[in-house]
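testing teh design pipeline on a random one, pls ignore if ur not involved
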């Protein structure tokens, strides 16, 4: 029950649903009640919040604040020594990122853009780390059917050259908090290279460390492609800006929820 309550509340706090709800609520108040001033306030706040979150520069600024917390892992060359933090890792863990169910498509085309970027980064690392095993995570979504998300990630890893016997699957965890618990059960005290989207990594690292996991941050799937917003981005409004703002707001809400419950 708590899981679904979190999902519903989180959805309605996202920039687009919240803005639309405020605007519609404001119009209803202005049109059908005497509380016209309150209605105008709701509509104005909703419109301004949508305008702010759709701005390309602000969206980049929001998400880069999260993505800049952990540096990317360097290019790895076959035969060259691994960075010290990676060399000690016994597992490479790729967190789930969503998929669709289309049996006629290969597994890589069923993954979301975030999930595909994460598994490519995980494979890149594990192929240079012969001592490490690959852990992939993601549940089976009963609403869309098909194999679990973890199985699709594993299938993509195999297609990219990782032997299936090197892969472990976590298919029961429904969110990052549950993934951290499952990773701890599999890896124990062994160091792990944790792969997820760069904007998701601060919260994921905090949850893993709360479980006592010795995690090395390995960011993928950067949403803020520009390290710093360009001047003219602050005069541009588009869906990309809204998407980046949504990712940032989602992570801030998730981190706050975890902190309030003492999970980080």
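output:
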């Amino acid at each position: 029950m708590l899981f679904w309550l979190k999902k519903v509340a989180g959805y309605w706090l996202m920039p687009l649903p919240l803005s639309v709800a405020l605007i519609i609520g404001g119009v209803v108040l202005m049109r059908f009640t005497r509380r016209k001033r309150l209605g105008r306030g709701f509509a104005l706040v909703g419109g301004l919040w949508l305008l702010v979150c759709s701005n390309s520069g602000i969206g980049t600024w929001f998400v880069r604040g999260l993505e800049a917390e952990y540096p990317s892992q360097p290019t790895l060359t076959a035969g060259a020594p691994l960075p010290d933090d990676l060399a000690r890792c016994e597992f490479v863990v790729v967190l789930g990122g969503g998929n669709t169910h289309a049996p006629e498509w290969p597994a890589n085309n069923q993954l979301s853009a975030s999930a595909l970027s994460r598994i490519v980064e995980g494979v890149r690392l594990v192929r240079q780390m012969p001592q490490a095993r690959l852990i992939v995570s993601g549940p089976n979504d009963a609403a869309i059917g098909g194999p679990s998300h973890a199985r699709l990630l594993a299938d993509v890893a195999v297609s990219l050259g990782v032997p299936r016997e090197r892969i472990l699957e976590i298919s029961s965890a429904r969110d990052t908090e549950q993934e951290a618990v499952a990773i701890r059960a599999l890896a124990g005290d062994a160091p792990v290279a944790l792969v997820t989207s760069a904007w998701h990594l601060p919260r994921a690292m905090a949850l893993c460390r709360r479980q006592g996991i010795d995690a090395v941050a390995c960011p993928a799937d950067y949403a803020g492609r520009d390290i710093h917003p360009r001047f003219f981005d602050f005069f541009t409004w588009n869906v990309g800006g809204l998407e980046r703002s949504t990712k940032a707001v989602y992570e801030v809400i998730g981190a706050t929820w975890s902190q309030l419950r003492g999970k980080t």
